[in-house]
Amino acid sequence: MNTQDFTAWTSAIRKSVMRAGTEDRTPGAARTEPEREAWLRQAIERALFADPRSAHADAGEKRRAVDQVFNAMRRLDVLEPLMRDPATTEIMVNGPDSVFVERNGRILPAGVRFESRERLEDLIQSLVSRVNRMVNESEPIVDARLEDGSRINAVMPPIALDGPLLTIRRFPDKPLGVTQLIALGALSEEAASFLERLVKARYNLFVCGGTGSGKTTLLNVLSAYIPSDERIVSIEDSAELQLAGIDNLARLETRNPNAEGKGGITMKQLIRTSLRMRPDRIIVGEVRGDEAFDMLQAMNTGHDGSMSTGHANSPADMMDRLETMVSMATAVPLPAIRRQIASAIEVVVFLQRLRDHSRRVVEIAEVTGCTAEGIELVPLFRFLEAGAEGVDGRVAGTLVPTGAQLTRTAKLALRGMA
To answer: In sequence order, which residues have a C-beta less than 8 Å from that of residue 391 and are 6 or more positions away?
Structure first.
């Protein structure tokens, strides 16, 4: 059975099940989710065998048809098999007929398509409604998350010219630990040990890098070093951090305004609220705008050990971006802004996706102060390439000390770690 015939067949089966209203007739005893799903599968199988085209399908096609209809009605439609593949890190939908998947850092056609544009739109609406968000022609852009923590971004027409756009960033079921990062070459043992000491000594850290460079993964790893007796407040635009080993954790997430433009909760508001929640540390998932000013205020007012992330092409670029963000929130003179940044942020960790698609920490720099020209940064570790690429095309190299020593050692000394 060719692709077009198979799509028409599964569409007919789904419509037959929907007309029958099987889910509405589920027996009263079958109220748990597994029982409802089992009942739906039985209804799909009955509709499949009632369709005359089933006589021309082999066992494999019938099994695939049942799975596809079930996924369309209950899960992520044609994307469900991609989401279940542990090698998948990103799914990119550029309309109903164009789906790409990223595996092991490489982007390839996924080999699947949606039945129609309406099916894709229905899926997007279903996903965003689960976290009380909405997307429509008047508000065509939305960020949300799935139950497993995966991050989604959806853009609808008329902004999206060729049909609805959907991007899903999938995170591992079990967050990577420092051991795995070292094994992957993303971090050296010496640098990992250095960062561990900084986190335990309550240094304020800022993780930066480009899109998909591994900022969230590294932040998860660093959070594992936080002592278990501390209270942490995490603040995110769309919750995706997987902070392990923290019992006293308060998680906050922003909220978009409703259809009347009311009820929105911003990062700026959440950071201010968090200060009244008695946090030992504040972890801000990502700063993009004027909330940077409140984040710096928190770091400078007794919340040592706080961490955040941001998009930038280098540590120096990140400092420049922070200056711009803070200037959006206040009329404080630039020299004062720079002094605040230099006082609040002590160490910057920069990640990058290299030409072999691997994600590596390529620089760890100390913020030593500020001048009239800008924030002063001293690299403590840098990624050093080691000769030619291997036969597998992987960039050879490691993160090595530059020879410069950490100068802001007061916190280490205070905890007997100098």
So the answer is: none
Q: Is 224 exposed, middle or buried (0-12, 13-18, 19+ CB in 10 A)?
A: middle
* Total number of residues shown for the chain: 418
pLDDT at 28: 45
> Does the structure show a pLDDT above 60 at 30?
no
| DSSP-based three-state secondary structure for 30 | coil
Per-residue b or e along 163-175, where b marks 16 or more CB atoms closer than 10 Å to that residue's CB: bbbbbbbbbeeeb
- Of 40, 51, 43, 39, residue with least CA distance to 11: 51
Q: Environment class of residue 136 by beta-carbon count within 10 Å: exposed (0-12), middle (13-18) or buried (19+)?
A: exposed
Strands 347-353 and 205-209: parallel
Distance CA(170)–CA(388), nearest Å, equals: 32
Residue 245 has pLDDT above 70, yes or no: yes
pTM (whole model) above 0.70:
yes
Residue 29 pLDDT: 46
DSSP-derived pairing of the beta strands 347-353 and 307-311: unpaired
List the Cα angle 77/81/86 in 5-degree steps. 140
Token couple for 11: 């569409």
Helix (H, G, I), strand (E, B) or coil at 363: strand
Cβ–Cβ under 8 Å, residues 120 and 93: yes
Phi/psi for 346 (5° steps) reads -105, -35
Residue 172 is classified by DSSP as: P
**Which residues are within 8 A (CB) of 335 and not within 5 positions of it... i.e. 6 or more apart?**
370, 372
